[in-house]
Amino acid sequence: MSEFLRESFNESKTMYSGHNEALVELGDENPDVLILYADFAQGQAGPYYRNKYPDRIINMGIAEANLMTVAAGLAEGGKIPFTHCHSIFAIGRTYNQIRQIAFDKYNVNIILCNTGMFWDFMGASHQVIEEIAALRALPNLVLLSPSDAVEAKKASKAAAYLDGPVAIRLAEPETPIIYHDDYHFEIGKAALLREGKDVTIAATGILMSKVLQAAKILEKEKIDVQVLNFHTIKPLDTETIKNSARETGAIVTVEDSSVIGGLGGSITEILSENYPIPIHRIGVRDVFGQTGNMEELATEYNMNITDIIKATRNVIKKKRK
Amino acid sequence: MTSTNFETHFTEVIKVSHDPELIIKLEGKAKLLRKHTIEMIRYAGKGWIGGSFSEAEIFTALIFHHMQIDPKNPDWPERDRLILSKAHCCEMHYAALGEAGYFPKKYFSTYGQFGGMLQAHSQRTVPGVDYSGGSLGTGLSFAVGEAIAAKLFSRKTSDGTIVPRNRVYCIIGDGECDGGQIWEAALSAGHHKLSNITTIIDRNRYQSTGAVDSIMEIEPLSEKWRSFLWNVIEVDGHDIDQILNGLEAAKKTSDKPSVIIANTVKGKGVPSFENRVHFSILTDEMYNEAMNALT
């Protein structure tokens, strides 16, 4: 196991809380950082900015399209905005506006709140399954997908200091903290979470703790699983994918989003061009979701620990002899 | 297309006040910009003739007199910003920037050419362009962001008053007012009292496929903006003196954003184009008509 990983996953937090810690630090560090909300619930950064930096927090109302282009104008004017809206509406209602930001490479940090399949209770109208596919087709845009509160904090801080547009996926449920605070996060570089030679699990986002638990269970079956964290979906760390494919010869991809065009789609594209090996993709398979909690949804849509274990066993059987 | 008597829509006509020599000089400039525009469109073979010609005096008043800009220093942080939200009418934008000295006029020949500097739809890669457009209805939101940034970078003047770092000018079309994001932006600018924004509506009464009032009635336009907490000024958009008066009145307004409804004629300046031409192939006949009318 990597030295960055905690020994046990007994503490849980939301990714949004980690992101808020970053905003508070950034507020003090950089006078140009400014936070915008589409009538979206603020975390601890809300009262902090309202007290200390009241000019640097703006609620733009339920008008995501305006919010996103306002952020572009702020960035051209020399500010570093962080936009906060539900991911489903960032993708669905402001895709065109995000595209304009990407075209002109503005330093806008787009926080995709309550992203993916696992927004507790809210149902299909609010679950976004298409955002990875939609955003990774945009040139110039960096797409980050942290897997716990610690990584979310690091992602937000890195985004503020990267001069260009960054979108960050933050899932809604509380999720186990996986990493120690000194975990090294570098945009564009996949993190090796676990060494292994039999099979690779390449994962992103909130399902990471389930992946690590699955790997532990498979260890008892003498299956040696390598786990890679693709916190950066774009630009994708293709060298690490190719090297890992050569080392293990089989890959399972895991994400809380549609496999169509998602991390699974991305990795399949890279490997089929460079080093074709058996792949199984865990993720949403071309369906809309429904109301439920994360456990219910992960089980219903075959994205739970048992599904990851089954897929891993199966993909190994398909390996070239 | 039928012609519309826009003059009946005037609610306020501002009295002539500028030095007549200045006005004559600027009128000459507007004519020259129309010529540059038609030459540019000649290189491309086609272009947005009507909407470029209707905005000639607006661009002239802004770039050659009113705005705080430095063509030799297009990225000067304290410059006033100019956002052409109706960015398809980029030919007049490029003509004004080239004439002002942002780039050599020889680049006009690259308009609409593969690999050329002057791409269809105003693009930030061109010196002097502050906003890449093309998606109608988004420019005013960009202006709102710029205006908030300018207020956050406010400075103290010698007499102790605090003024925004710069002003923001945004040209939108009347057809563009169909779109919802314009009204989201208008709402937010009114709420935040962004007095450093001046929006100019090129009210030429036509959009891509016909007359604005036949496609989507936007009247009463003044009342709409007023109800969104904007200061509303109406001018004849081909009368440079009136435009300058409007711009100066807007600049003096300290508690709300201003919109200048500039009543214009699509294709203004070449009689055979007026109220007729939107996007068009430029035939030899049209080119000759334009050159005759503009010399």
Task: Summarize this structure as a short list of keywords or feature phrases.
heterodimer, A: alpha/beta, Rossmann fold, seven-stranded mixed sheet, 14 strands, globular, B: 295 residues, alpha/beta, five-stranded parallel sheet, two-stranded antiparallel ribbon, 10 helices
What's a concise summary of this model?
Chain A is an alpha/beta fold and 321 residues long. In chain A, 40% of the residues lie in helices and 20% in strands. Chain A folds into 2 domains: 12-176, Thiamin diphosphate (ThDP)-binding fold, Pyr/PP domains (Rossmann fold), CATH 3.40.50.970; 191-317, 3-Layer(aba) Sandwich (Rossmann fold), CATH 3.40.50.
Structure explained in plain terms:
The complex is a heterodimer of chains A (321) and B (295). With 321 residues, chain A is α/β, with parallel strands linked by helices. Chain A has 2 domains: 165 residues, Thiamin diphosphate (ThDP)-binding fold, Pyr/PP domains (Rossmann fold), CATH 3.40.50; 127 residues, Rossmann fold (3-Layer(aba) Sandwich), CATH 3.40.50. In chain A, 40% of the residues lie in helices and 20% in strands. The model of chain A has no long low-confidence stretch (mean pLDDT 97). Chain B has 295 residues and is of the alpha/beta class. Chain B has a single domain, classed as Rossmann fold (3-Layer(aba) Sandwich), CATH 3.40.50.970. In chain B, α9 links the parallel β9 and β10. In chain B, α1 crosses α3, α3 runs parallel beside α4 and α3 crosses α9. The longest helix of chain B is centred in the first third of the chain and has 25 residues. Chain B is globular. The interface between A and B is medium-sized, with 28 and 27 residues.
How would you summarize the topology of this molecule?
The complex is a heterodimer of chains A (321) and B (295).
Chain A: E1 12-13, H1 15-29, E2 33-37, H2 45-52, E3 57-59, H3 64-76, E4 80-86, H4 87-104, E5 109-113, H5 131-136, E6 142-144, H6 149-161, E7 166-170, E8 175-176, E9 191-194, E10 199-203, H7 208-220, E11 225-229, E12 232-234, H8 238-248, E13 251-258, H9 263-274, E14 279-284, H10 294-300, H11 305-317
Parallel strand pairs in A: 2-3, 2-4, 4-5, 5-7, 6-7, 10-11, 10-13, 13-14
Antiparallel strand pairs in A: 1-8, 6-12, 9-11
Chain B: H1 20-44, E1 46-48, H2 49-54, H3 56-66, E2 81-84, H4 90-100, H5 139-152, E3 155-156, E4 162-163, E5 168-173, H6 180-191, E6 197-203, E7 206-207, E8 210-211, H7 212-215, H8 221-227, E9 231-236, H9 240-252, E10 258-263, E11 279-281, H10 284-294
Parallel strand pairs in B: 2-5, 5-6, 6-10, 9-10
Antiparallel strand pairs in B: 1-11, 3-4, 7-8
Helix pairs in contact in B: 1-3, 1-4, 1-10, 3-4, 3-9, 5-6
